[in-house]
Amino acid sequence: MPARPLFQSLGVAGLLALLATQAAVAAPPASPAPSRNVVVLCLSEFPPFNASSLPEGGPLARVVAQSFARAGLKTELRFLPWARVVKEAEAGECLIAGLWRNESRDQIYAYARPFFQMELGYFGLRSAERPGESVNESVASRICVQRGAYLPPALTPIQGQLQLHTDMPGCMRMLEKGRVDIAFGARGAGQHYLESQAGRDLLNEVEWKGPPLEVKEHLLAVRNTHPQRDLLLQSFNRGLSQLQADGSYQRLLRAGGLTPP
Q1: Separation CA 217–CA 240 (nearest Å)
Q2: Which end of the chain is less enclosed by CB atoms within 10 A, N or C?
Q3: What is the average pLDDT across 71-100?
Q4: CATH number for the domain harbouring residue 245
Q5: What are the beta bridge partners of residue 185?
């Protein structure tokens, strides 16, 4: 069973000292006990940013884990469906390693510094023009979006006319077949598919149509009522600053195929 986090009011140094003392006086267990000095991070599958199939959970998961490591804290990754991620975080069972703010979430969570910026916008055939800033219903009927995905303000008024698919690759294939003119999604996710073996046949046909419709800050979120809220956020922020200052942050992103901001 995954280790549960031990958060007490001792601070990082005090917590580590207490654990060391307990280990020294306790009788050796019959089998190795899991470490309880763990920050549990909940994530959803979102390649190439984070995924259970990627090394160490992907580049953004590595950034978060190494930020906490700089503060002396270990992390445990839990990849879950998005609804479960939210449920676990609201129960105080984990931190969300990648949340976009809105008014309702601001009532529940406190946030650390942004650790990435997500560009959201359009992909289309190289021969096609990018839609204008104002999208009417006839244009909307030719735009594919992933079912359940976040929509920026430019698309929410006409969301009933948008074409839906289960995922971004499916929208790309609709482009190929001429069923839609535009696929909406995260730039990094779309580019990752086009450069993968599964989508490489579209690389010369489909391109990003900048500028982005919106740029979302990717945030570490902790429940407002979490007893270790401030300590966790301060520890993460301090570690992230160290990663950025010595170039580790940039190297982690590039190693995962992402472009540093």
Answers
A1: 15
A2: N
A3: 96
A4: 3.40.190.10
A5: 121
Structural domain of 180? 118-215
Extract the tokens encoding 6: 């031990």
Residue pair 175/206 in contact by the 8 Å Cβ criterion: yes
Convert the pLDDT of each residue in 128-169 to its tens digit. 899 888 899 999 999 999 999 999 999 999 999 999 999 999
Sign of the C-alpha dihedral computed for residues 153, 182, 184 and 174 taken in this order: positive
Interatomic CA distance for residues 94 and 88, integer angstroms: 6
Per the omega criterion (within 30 degrees of 0), is the bond before 32 cis? no
Contacts of 165 (CB under 8 A, 6+ apart): 144, 145, 146, 147, 171, 174
Q: Where are the beta strands (DSSP E) in 147-205?
A: 163-165, 182-186
Residues 157 and 143 in one domain: yes
